[in-house]
């Protein structure tokens, strides 16, 4: 609980990637969301970003306050997921502080508790814990990107254990390409 929101994509994402990162994370943690849910999530994230809201709790609030049934349904589903294990890291509430830049020679980000699926497993067979773990790994990569995107005069190296999971998704490949 003390780390709730530490990886909230609305706070850690680079400004030009925030909308895509937040929408992708929310849709990744849901089991096969219908197209109506996808549209509502993308609309709520877009509106939250335009209003300078910086946490996914605000997005869930927008969904639950909507007059649209699909928005209410996906808001309820995300609210339940937001309080499940590792998902707490991605769902900030209230004022979520932006991460500081890396100031030390070595910055280590550890994520104990990841429950990654077998390499050959299809997304449809992932458990809830596996979906959240894969989505959380993308947030760790986004935080690494944020940390290394600062001072261009300083050489940086990013090592990602289990990076092959990032190669399995469009969002993950985009993050890895940006890191490179």
Quick overview:
Helix content is 52%, strand content 0%. With 180 residues, it is mostly helical.
Any overview of this molecule?
By secondary structure, this protein is mainly α. 52% of the residues lie in helices and 0% in strands. It contains nine helices and no strands. It has helices at residues 9-12, 18-29, 35-50, 56-65, 69-81, 87-90, 128-148, 164-167, 170-179. The mean pLDDT is 86.
Outline: globular
Radius of gyration: 16 Å
Question: Can you give the mean pLDDT?
Answer: 86
How many E strands? 0
Q: Give the class from helix and strand content and strand pairing.
A: mainly alpha
Number of helices: 9
Q: List low-confidence stretches.
A: none
Note the main attributes of this structure.
9 helices
Compile the SSE list and pairings:
Blueprint: H1 9-12, H2 18-29, H3 35-50, H4 56-65, H5 69-81, H6 87-90, H7 128-148, H8 164-167, H9 170-179
Helix pairs in contact: 2-3, 2-7, 3-4, 3-5, 4-5, 7-9
């Amino acid at each position: 609980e003390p780390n709730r929101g530490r990886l909230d994509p609305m706070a850690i994402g680079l400004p030009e990637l925030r909308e895509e990162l937040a929408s992708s994370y929310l849709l990744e943690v849901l089991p096969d969301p219908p197209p109506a849910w996808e549209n509502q999530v993308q609309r709520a994230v877009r509106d939250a970003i335009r209003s300078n809201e910086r946490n996914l709790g605000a997005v869930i609030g927008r969904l639950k306050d909507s007059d649209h049934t699909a928005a209410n349904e996906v808001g309820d589903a995300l609210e339940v997921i937001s309080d499940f294990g590792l998902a707490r890291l991605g769902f900030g509430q209230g004022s979520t502080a932006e991460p500081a830049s890396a100031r030390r020679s070595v910055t280590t980000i550890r994520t104990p508790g990841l429950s990654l699926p077998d390499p050959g497993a299809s997304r449809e067979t992932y458990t809830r814990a596996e979906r959240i773990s894969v989505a959380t790994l993308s947030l760790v990569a986004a935080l690494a990107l944020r940390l290394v995107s600062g001072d261009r005069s300083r050489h940086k190296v990013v090592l990602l254990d289990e990076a092959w999971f990032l190669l399995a998704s469009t969002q993950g490949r985009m993050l890895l390409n940006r890191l490179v």
